[in-house]
């Protein structure tokens, strides 16, 4: 049943539902969902929570991931994914869209849009994908102030502090920053772009009791590991941030190439979602039934 018209609408705030999912046994798996349809498909596959990547958002808009979209633009994505799926959603908050007051505005806006969790990163603008080179780090105390602002502004949002320090400051800098961010109010730490199993293991060992998030992005600096392997390393959450967008984009590329070549889409039919599959995914029949029942209930009494 579509979330919008289902009878099992969640009563708990999104942040509380994210914490409940995190408290269940095993690592919390957070596949990226770049729009409402992707969110519906992830939910149908059995996932209990989702991730919204800044890189996926910007790429879907035809833009690079350089911190140039706005809070309102992100909220548009949050609303459609949360509304479509009803699942708790972790959102990429980039650098917080400014300093402390801007971070507080972002937190309240994301909560109002339906987000369950957010992560902030300690880069300076123009920020980059965590797996690219020449990233510029903010002073640790400045980032800690943003984390404190987020923790103060949130009503239920789960706050994750991301640090990109591994490339420039190594494990020592990563751990030192993580400890400072936890003291400032972060609920968990996201050590970005770790390049070996040994690095993941050392960060885990040096941050006992701290919830940790791992990023399993394709074509990046992190070795390919499964959710089970991250769990065995002691990590609590894992994201696959851009996977859904990469697959969708590649399929669209093949479609347009075939259409330009053949002047028709026949060759692509086996790769297409059918009309029946689409309508089932979006709950067309349930929406029509609801509309019909409302219309019937508003008819005047017959003489």
UniProtKB/TrEMBL annotation:
InterPro entries: ICL/PEPM, Isocitrate_lyase_ph_CS, PrpB, Pyrv/PenolPyrv_kinase-like_dom, Pyrv_kinase-like_dom_sf. Gene3D superfamilies: Phosphoenolpyruvate-binding domains. Pathway: Organic acid metabolism; propanoate degradation. GO terms for molecular function: metal ion binding; methylisocitrate lyase activity. Transmembrane segments: none annotated. Its cofactor is Mg(2+). Keywords: Lyase, Magnesium, Metal-binding. GO terms for biological process: propionate catabolic process, 2-methylcitrate cycle. It catalyses: (2S,3R)-3-hydroxybutane-1,2,3-tricarboxylate = pyruvate + succinate. Its EC number is 4.1.3.30. PROSITE patterns: ISOCITRATE_LYASE. It comes from the Bacteria. Catalyzes the thermodynamically favored C-C bond cleavage of (2R,3S)-2-methylisocitrate to yield pyruvate and succinate. Involved in the catabolism of short chain fatty acids (SCFA) via the 2-methylcitrate cycle I (propionate degradation route). Catalyzes the thermodynamically favored C-C bond cleavage of (2R,3S)-2-methylisocitrate to yield pyruvate and succinate via an alpha-carboxy-carbanion intermediate. Homotetramer; dimer of dimers. NCBIfam families: prpB. Belongs to the isocitrate lyase/PEP mutase superfamily. Methylisocitrate lyase family. This is Methylisocitrate lyase.
């Amino acid at each position: 049943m579509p979330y919008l018209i289902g009878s099992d609408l969640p009563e708990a705030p999104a942040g509380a539902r994210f914490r409940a999912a995190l408290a269940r046994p095993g690592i919390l798996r957070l596949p990226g969902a770049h729009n409402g349809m992707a969110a519906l498909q992830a939910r149908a596959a059995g996932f209990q929570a989702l991730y919204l990547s800044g890189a996926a958002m910007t790429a879907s808009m035809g833009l690079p991931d350089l911190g140039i979209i706005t809070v309102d633009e992100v909220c548009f994505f949050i609303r459609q994914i949360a509304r479509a799926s009803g699942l708790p959603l972790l959102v990429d908050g980039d650098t917080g869209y400014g300093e402390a007051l801007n971070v507080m505005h972002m937190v309240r806006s994301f909560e109002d849009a339906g987000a369950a969790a957010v992560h902030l990163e300690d880069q300076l603008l123009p920020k980059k994908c965590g797996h690219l080179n020449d990233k510029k780090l903010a002073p640790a105390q400045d980032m800690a102030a943003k984390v404190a602002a987020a923790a103060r502004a949130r009503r239920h949002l789960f706050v994750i502090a991301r640090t990109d320090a591994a490339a420039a400051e190594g494990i020592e800098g990563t751990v030192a920053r993580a400890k400072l961010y936890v003291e400032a109010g972060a609920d968990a730490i996201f050590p970005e772009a770790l390049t070996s199993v040994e690095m993941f293991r050392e960060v885990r060992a040096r941050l006992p009791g701290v919830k940790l998030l791992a990023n399993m992005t394709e074509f990046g600096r992190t070795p390919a590991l499964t959710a089970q392997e991250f769990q065995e390393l002691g990590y609590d959450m894992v994201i696959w941030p851009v996977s859904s967008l990469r697959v969708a984009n590649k399929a669209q590329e093949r479609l347009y190439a075939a259409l330009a070549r053949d002047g028709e889409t026949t060759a692509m039919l086996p790769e297409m979602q059918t009309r029946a599959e689409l309508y089932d995914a979006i709950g067309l029949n349930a929406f029509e039934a609801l509309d019909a029942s409302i219309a019937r209930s508003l008819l005047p009494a017959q003489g």
